[in-house]
């Protein structure tokens, strides 16, 4: 019964997430595990942004890591070149992501399916290229160091601190994503996912709703990128790279398209598994790829929707 | 009194004239049917009136205002709402949520309030939900409220589309083959439903192949053939019009019919 609630109600999803967040530090044998968990929370936050774009609104984005990169470099460049506070840089970076998403999304969200995929791919490539080539500001392909974050005079450092900061950010992100899902905006997004023509017929301004989803998704990724940069203390253009964009899409799909819990599970899957497979050395990538294929073959609707169906069938 | 006024509407696709100089008017509470052989341009005409296609020629006026070329979502806001010949259902949403989307225009929340989950959103959700449940009940689908629309049978989805359209508070409702693929019982239900809709003062523009249904419920019938107006008038008049019989049965069929009735 409780398990069923975790899959179906908003409060259940959040409680499950909080329970896992509280549990991990108790069982983690070393700070290494906390750092991996913090990475999961960060990528889950970025994947949640993509859940709103792809899962709710059904608009594919193969360049979402571009926003990860913009957010990350904002907290690197702001304090270094403009003498801005890191926290203010984070906020400005998130704002910049929203603005860029608005300007880029307005023309390209008119495209559909494969064509939108290629256009977003192009956007991601441009961001990565600019970050790698503007060496004077970004440090070029080698990247640049990131100043430490301090909140009201308190320096944010140490694995456990970052664990809680990232967990808090994810929890807030999950809350907002769940809010949207059950709201008039969320219904409009899910409606246009299934039929744009019928959504428009019901009075939904399809173009502006798509754009709103894209902007929100970009802000999520931007904040995730900023947290990633601040936690690692170093950032490279690879953050905005194509592989990261594909990873984000894979997280959303493996976890279960459109599911908030799914985005977190998908992020955990793709962050933890490579760490667990490092003992396989040169076979690591091959085994990871194989596992992804096996999961998609046996759980085609994603991990969380499949589990939900099993739990609900058992409960009824 | 006229609620919908279509004048000289026309469109060509690659040199082929699909709809040519079609005019008609519809009054509130009236059932106005558009019939014609396959490919006569009926659905194209709907797509022109609802702003999905841009007309090459002609004007559409709604409640006196020129709405030619106005985007579909804005037309919905002005009271022009339609259903679709090939179902356009939100398959991943529940039946109730499908109808709730129809209430979108009446919903008074902003993107920010939706994100942060202000109390106004919960209030709005409750109001929308209540209204959608009422409408599901009206079309006889209340028991399917929480079922995913993707799992519902065809005849049920036809009525679900009508409920969703009604949620948008139409002044003019365009129904594109609402009884297609429905069994006799379902057709009966749609017949009764259309009667109820018009009694509420809503104008219904109907495309339908079920001639028994058309002849029974229509106030006036427009016959299209090859994109042009062939005849218009009361069902009885249209049914006996020789040119209509010829269009449906072909020249040869008409001669045969003449001889048979001769």
Structure description:
The complex is a heterodimer of chains A (316) and B (262). Chain A is mainly alpha-helical and 316 residues long. Chain A has 15 helices and four strands. In chain A, the strands form two sheets. A two-stranded antiparallel ribbon of chain A has the order 1-4. The mean pLDDT of chain A is 92. In chain B, the strands form two sheets. Chain B has a six-stranded mixed beta sheet with strand order 6-7-8-3-9-10, with helices on both faces. The radius of gyration of chain B is 20 Å and the shape is globular. The interface between A and B is medium-sized, with 29 and 40 residues.
Topology at a glance:
The complex is a heterodimer of chains A (316) and B (262).
Chain A: H1 2-8, H2 10-27, H3 31-56, H4 65-81, H5 86-108, H6 113-133, H7 135-138, E1 144-145, E2 150-151, E3 154-155, H8 159-181, H9 184-194, H10 196-201, H11 206-232, E4 234-235, H12 242-255, H13 260-276, H14 284-298, H15 303-315
Helix pairs in contact in A: 1-2, 1-15, 2-8, 3-8, 3-11, 3-12, 3-13, 4-5, 4-6, 4-11, 5-11, 8-11, 9-11, 12-13
Chain B: E1 4-13, E2 16-26, E3 31-35, H1 42-49, E4 57-62, E5 65-66, H2 72-77, E6 80-82, H3 95-102, H4 111-116, H5 119-138, H6 154-167, E7 172-176, H7 184-199, E8 203-207, H8 211-217, E9 220-225, E10 228-233, H9 235-240, H10 242-261
GO molecular function, one term (chain B): ATP binding
Domain ABC transporter (chain B): 4-251
Protein name (chain B): ABC transporter ATP-binding protein
């Amino acid at each position: 019964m409780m398990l069923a609630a975790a899959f179906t109600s908003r409060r259940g999803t959040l409680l499950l997430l909080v329970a896992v967040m509280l549990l991990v530090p108790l069982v983690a044998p070393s700070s290494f595990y906390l750092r991996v968990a913090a990475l999961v929370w960060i990528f889950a936050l970025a994947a949640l942004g993509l859940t709103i774009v792809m899962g709710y609104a059904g608009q594919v984005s193969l360049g979402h890591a571009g926003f990860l990169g913009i957010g990350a470099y904002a907290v690197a460049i702001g304090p270094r070149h403009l003498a801005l506070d890191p926290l203010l840089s984070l906020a400005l970076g998130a704002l910049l992501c929203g603005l860029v998403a608005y300007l880029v999304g307005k023309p390209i969200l008119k495209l559909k399916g494969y064509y939108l995929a290629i256009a977003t791919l192009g956007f991601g490539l441009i961001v990565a290229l600019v970050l790698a080539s503007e060496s004077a500001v970004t440090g070029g392909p080698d990247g640049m160091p990131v100043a430490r974050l301090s909140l009201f005079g308190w320096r944010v450092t140490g694995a456990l601190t970052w664990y809680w900061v990232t967990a808090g950010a994810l929890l807030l992100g999950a809350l907002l994503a769940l809010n949207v899902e059950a709201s008039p905006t969320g219904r409009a997004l899910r409606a246009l996912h299934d039929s744009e023509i019928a959504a428009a017929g019901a009075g939904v301004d399809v173009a502006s709703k798509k754009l709103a989803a894209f902007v929100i998704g970009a802000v999520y990724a931007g904040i995730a990128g900023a947290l990633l940069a601040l936690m690692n203390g170093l950032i490279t253009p690879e953050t905005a790279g194509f592989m990261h964009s594909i990873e984000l899409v894979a997280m959303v799909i493996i976890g279960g398209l459109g599911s908030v819990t799914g985005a977190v599970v998908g992020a955990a899957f793709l962050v933890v598994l490579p760490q667990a497979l490092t003992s396989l050395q040169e076979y690591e990538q091959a085994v990871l790829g194989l596992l992804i294929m096996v999961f998609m073959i046996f759980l085609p609707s994603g991990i969380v929707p499949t589990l939900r169906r099993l739990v609900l069938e058992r409960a009824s | 009194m006229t609620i919908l006024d279509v004048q000289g509407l026309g469109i060509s696709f690659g040199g082929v004239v699909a709809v040519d100089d079609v005019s008609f008017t519809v009054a509130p509470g009236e059932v106005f049917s558009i019939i014609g052989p396959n490919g006569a341009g009926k659905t194209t005409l709907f797509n022109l009136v609802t702003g999905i296609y841009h007309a090459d020629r002609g004007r559409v006026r709604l409640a006196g205002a020129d709405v030619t070329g106005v985007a579909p979502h804005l037309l919905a806001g002005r009271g022009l709402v339609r259903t679709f010949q090939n179902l356009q259902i939100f398959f991943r949403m529940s039946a109730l949520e499908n109808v709730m989307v129809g209430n979108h225009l009446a919903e008074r929340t902003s993107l920010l309030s939706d994100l942060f989950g202000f109390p106004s959103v919960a209030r709005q959700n409750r109001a929308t939900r209540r209204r959608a449940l009422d409408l599901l009940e009206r079309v006889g689908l209340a028991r399917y409220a929480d079922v995913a629309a993707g799992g519902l049978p065809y005849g049920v989805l036809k009525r679900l589309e009508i409920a969703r359209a009604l949620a948008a508070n139409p002044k003019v409702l365009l129904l594109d083959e609402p009884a297609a693929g429905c069994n006799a019982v379902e057709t009966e239900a749609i017949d009764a439903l259309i009667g109820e809709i018009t009694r509420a003062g809503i104008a219904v523009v109907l495309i339908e192949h079920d001639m028994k249904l058309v002849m029974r419920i229509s106030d006036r019938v427009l016959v299209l053939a090859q994109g042009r107006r062939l005849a218009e008038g009361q069902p009885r008049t249209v049914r006996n019009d020789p040119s209509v019989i010829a269009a449906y049965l072909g020249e040869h069929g008409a001669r045969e019919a003449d001889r048979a009735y001769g």
